[in-house]
Write a structure and sequence with these properties.
The protein is an alpha/beta fold and 396 residues long. The protein has 2 domains: 10-206 and 329-392, Crotonobetainyl-coa:carnitine coa-transferase, domain 1 (Rossmann fold); 234-315, formyl-coa transferase, domain 3, CATH 3.30.1540. It contains 18 helices and 11 strands. It has helices at residues 19-29, 57-62, 76-88, 98-104, 108-114, 139-145, 148-151, 166-189, 199-207, 209-217, 251-261, 275-280, 282-293, 298-307, 318-323, 325-330, 373-379, 384-392, and strands at residues 10-13, 33-38, 66-70, 91-94, 119-124, 193-198, 234-238, 243-247, 312-314, 333-338, 342-347. A hairpin with a 3-residue loop joins strand 10 (333-338) and strand 11. Helix 1 (19-29) packs across helix 8 (166-189) and helix 8 (166-189) packs across helix 9.
Length: 396
Amino acid sequence: MTRLPLDGTRVIDLTRARAGPTAVRQLADWGADVVQVEEPAGPDRDAQSLLGARHSPDMLNLHRNKRSMTIDLKSADGREIFLRLAERADVVVENYRPGVKHRLGIDYEAVRARNPRIVYGSISGFGQSGPYADRPGVDQIAQGMGGLMSITGLPGQGPVRVGIPIADLTAGMFLAQGILLALFERERSGEGQWVHTSLLEAQIAMLDFQAARWLIGRERPPQAGNNHPTAIPTGVFATADGHINIAASGNEMFRRLCGALGSPELLGDERFRSGGSRLKHRDELNAALEAYTSTRPSAEWVERLNAAGVPCGPIYFVDETLSDPQVRHLGIATPVEHAALGRLEVVGQPVHLERTPQPAVLRRPPPEPGEHTDEVLAELGLAASEVASLRERGVV
């Protein structure tokens, strides 16, 4: 098997919920040896219960390519085991509220005292300091505070959440990027560092040009529904059997669109002669275009418009997306062998490295709670009798 880029990198995973595990998943999929630390058996162990049962699709998709061990981090012995693991690790990742890790004594400074090379990654709801630092943070709260819900949905509809946990997912991706940057920098300095982000920061970063419209132009972006806020015409258009997306902003693209639709009269209409006039008369233009698109089925328009160099695509349900021949060709639905559930498919990596690619089948299925506790403790040099004593005392 080809060695993956992070092969030999050791990661201690203290994360729960979604944002933190998303960051760790990036490291695990690209070859890191990830040890997921969970609570010992008990009614409060599964802090990830918001994601469903252990074998739910969400949990299985998030926690592949890991080993799992249980440690009671509230006990002195459990904290010492964690710190011994951290001594041998390259990365620790956590997404507790900022004060929790300090109360447990597993914060960056505590770990750095044992391992100055550690890269310590943190995700919180609102940042590690500031007036909201200790607030509990979840995706939908960040979507609202981060401005996203004000620009999502139809004009006048009121705030609408995005259909995925975008603040969680992007915070996880940004943290993974930051961890990789810190590992790269460590090659020069020999020192680790604390890397942190938050759901709120990630959400604001994802506003991108919508935030820039305010920061630079002092323009408050409104809801635009299925229309692109500034590129006209770009949006959803009814067909004879459904709907399609068309993106034809700019004079040349608009000319191609009108040619492919067989609507040359629109090119001569004063309302549609320039990008500015098309924006001003967007509703009239969309109605005029839809009078043409509604006469033929979606598949015909997708073929015809793409042949003319006009971006156009179908609007799928999720099952249709994952059945599309191009999606199957890209291989993003990745198989994994699970001892209890057999062969599964999870959502794989969207990035391709040609020389060190992802394996055809994932290296490890999602672990059962504490499945690798004995194995990891043995790697620390603990004898079987010591492990048995830890188990008797509920430390692991």
